[in-house]
Amino acid sequence: MTAGSAAAACRGAALLAVVACGCGGSWPRGPDAGEAATDTGAADASGRDAYARDAPGCTPSCAGSECGPDGCGGTCGTCDPGITCQLGRCSATERPLPMLHNHSGASSARVRELVLEAIDGLGFAAAGGQGPRADDRFFVSRYYMAWIDQTGFYGKINGLWRLDEAADDSLDFVVREAGGRPVSFLAPGENGDGRWAPGYLGAEHLEFPSRVPEPDDDPGCASRDWCNQYSLNEAAHFTDPDIRHWSACNTGSPPWADRFDPIVEETLATGLRLVYEGPLVKEADGGDRARDGDHCHEDWLFEDGVRRRVFLRVGLELRADAPWLDRLVQVRNPAGNPPFDGAMSFIGGFVITAWPSAHPLKRLDRFLRPESRGARDELHGLDLIGGRWNAHPFDPRTSDEIFAWLDQPISLSATDGYVAGQTATLSHVGPSDNADVGICMCFVHGGLELGGGLIHGGVSLPVAGGGLSIEARRRLALPGGLPPPGGGTFTYESETDLLHVVGRAEADGWGASTALDAAGHMAFGPYATGWGGGTATATFRLMVDDASADDAVVATIDVHDATTDETLAARDLRRRSFGGPMAYTDFTLAASLAGRAGHRMETRVWFHDRSYLRLDRVVVVAGP
Asked: What share of the chain is helix, strand, coil (3-state, %, to 5)?
């Protein structure tokens, strides 16, 4: 955490900031403010996000492979029926799988099918060896499937799939793309192209800032957020050019095949507990500004200038009886060491999707719900009401947006409700020191991250030599019922059920006028997921004040799939299309929803600023 009054001020408010306030150790912005501004920069012509679905520069990798993914979303070839693809070769023998922990109720054969489908859906090229290996683990319950990556990583969850809770062989994935590919809830391989998020080591981020300068560091780094960052040394390389202090330590990372075994493996009545341990070492070089990678992967530098080994324990408790899991974090300071301490905390979280180019099925930023009490969205000037879903219908920024020190669980959803596969709830549930719950829509690192800070200096630190810190717990829950099968009639009142950019509530609807409003969406939403995959007919009830002055286009109505950002049907409404002044007229649109079951659907009205316009309601009839 930052020291003094700044830390106290940050604890006193649940806030959203641009870039990082540096409060309480949540996502510090960099070695100093000026340097961070340089790192952030502005979006380039492509939106800066090299992790986007159609990002250029991907070279297919099929050397020595006759089948399987090519690492760019394509394939190196397919095998004949009855023959499986194993590490890039077609083979009649059974394909080897990671270690399976089946707590689902489904048969081993069905679980094997699901795991194979999940692995293939990530799209990692067999020739690269970066995807799931036989030495990794898969945990499968009725609620979710998790890839526990222990080759190149200390038991990091690098894949997570929401399942439909069936307790038999009908068990299946909840979230699939239109072509049927299951989509992981986490960033690696989310587009089926075998890519890692360029600003992270896998799907979980963890860093511990140090303010102890190395001999060749700028001594002034001690008075800023941090000099260097410490973490576990793991396989994936940072390739994001915005974070050169991290990529400076790429050299010396372990190879993908290195296996890290847990120090604790315990089957529980409720699931599985795993704990891994590794040395806490330097993983980001920022203090000397040269970012030359000096002293990378070396032990913790104590304030007396001596490096000594300190261990970081990272564990998992995976539940078979509920749709959540816990990430465990603990420090072990060996006997003989001075007290282990730091000004901030272990910062990071789960990386859900690329940012700002999120996977279209994972726009969890659309609705926010502080679970216990209100919070303030300072950036957009909104008060978020506690215990309710609050619309967050904003385009991604070209800087970080951060909620910090929320001191309560926070839920994010693609729609205004808890829907399996479209909703996540983050909380800290350790024995103490749980207030630093946060969200980062991280433009610089390039990910939507759910986390915050654990094990804070001045709260859970220092840890004496020979001692252990608390076992901190970060809980990721995937709540919600299954998306409804669809069908039926849905009425959306403009004042209460839809969202708005322009206009205001009036006696029996939502109105916009040329005197008070600019052109814009006077209604959008409701991001409904229950229309099904058949057809939809939407009837918009609208009025104008003058139906004869001219025949200009005064409104545009449409049916829009917010999940895929596609407009399915649209119509321009001219003034003389209305039956008369200040009298409601119904306008109808029909759309096909084939392949869109469970998608977030909208009915939208665009106000052209050419006439007074009022919307009463929209009625949607969804059918087969």
From this structure: 10, 35, 55
Of 570, 511, 513, the closest CA to residue 538 belongs to: 570
Rounded-to-integer distance, Cα 67 and Cα 75, Å: 7
The three-state secondary structure class of 199 is coil
Q: Which residues pair with 621 in a beta bridge?
A: 489, 537
Q: 3-state class of 128 per DSSP?
A: helix
Q: Are strands 137-140 and 99-102 parallel, antiparallel or unpaired?
A: parallel
First-to-final CA distance of the chain: 55
How many alpha carbons lie under 13 Å from residue 109 in its C-beta half-sphere?
2
**531 within 8 A of 490, measured Cβ to Cβ:** yes
Strands 271-279 and 311-319: antiparallel
Structural contact between residues 265 and 316, judged by C-beta atoms closer than 8 angstroms: no
Q: At residue 556, what is the residue type? A: T
- The DSSP string of 151-203 is BSSSSEEEEEEEB---SSTT--BS-B-TTS-B--SSSTTTTSS----TTSSTT
DSSP symbols for 64-98: T-SSSB-SSSSBS--PPTT-EEETTEEESSPPP--
Cα gap 470→446, rounded to integer Å: 31
Q: Which helix (H) or strand (E) holds 612?
A: none
* Rg of the chain over all Cα atoms, to the nearest angstrom: 26
Quick check: 395 and 501 in contact, CB under 8 A? no
Cross-strand bridge partners of residue 424? 412
Q: Read off the pLDDT of residues 272-330 as tens digits, 9 standing for 90 and up.
A: 999 999 999 999 998 887 888 999 999 999 999 999 999 999 999 999 999 999 999 99
The pTM for the full model equals 0.74
State which H helix or E strand residue 274 sits in: strand 271-279
Find the angle CA(273)-CA(25)-CA(475) to the nearest 5 degrees.
Answer: 25
Domains of the chain: residue spans and CATH = 488-623 (2.60.120.260)
Distance CA 548, CA 309 (A): 81
CA distance 92 to 183: 28
